[in-house]
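Revision sheet: structure tokens.
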Amino acid sequence: MITLEVVDTARLTPGFSNITLGGQELEHLTPAGFDQIVRLFFPREGQDGLFMPTLSNEAWMAQFLLRSPSRRPWVRNFTIRRTRPELGEVDIEFALHGDTPASSWARRARPGDPAGIFDMGVSYLPQDASAPQLLVGDESALPAILAILDHAPATLIADVFLEVPVAADVRPDVTAPEGVRLHWLARDGADSLPGTLALRAVEEASLRSDLGYSWIAGESGLATGLRRHLVRDRGVPKSAIAFQGYWRHGRSTPG
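Predicted:
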């Protein structure tokens, strides 16, 4: 468990905000690159401090649940967008969705506010980095995919499909290896569930026939639907697909 505080905040686009966390305890974090996942602890509105479990293994949950509900912080999974060990800082990007706990906290967070993280490792694990890849995600997976591209070797060959709520959320400054084809998809008010646009775009795309690894994340329908398409219609082995349903439309929203 690593206790930190907000160092800076920045609105990136209409639908995304970045929060920089820092503190001496970051020396205990081993940067893993790619989609390094952390459990983010942040206070509920009205709490005057942050309770952090003291156990650094999975027993933390029992300790957490022994706390009265009114004194527990919120806990959500996020991907580290960037690490700056020399400054003792990490960036975490938030997809802003209504009044969800994480979105509300990201909007009101100010320098000095407490937060904490617990490292969960990475899920992007291609066995052969030289084989062509497919990376697909909605807005909840955008920070993870951008972090993967930041750490990718210059020889990466990949098709990358990124779905965002509106065209203003597209990042024209994103850089990627020469062999990466970026496909930005903006819903722009279209009457479709999040993830549907990306799913349809991949189904209709001309993908490389020697696809070696696929990483898919976002709304659960996108993750499971695209895995089904790749296996059934494209003959991709299940073992070559990593897929994660970060959230489910109608039940919860990312963050």
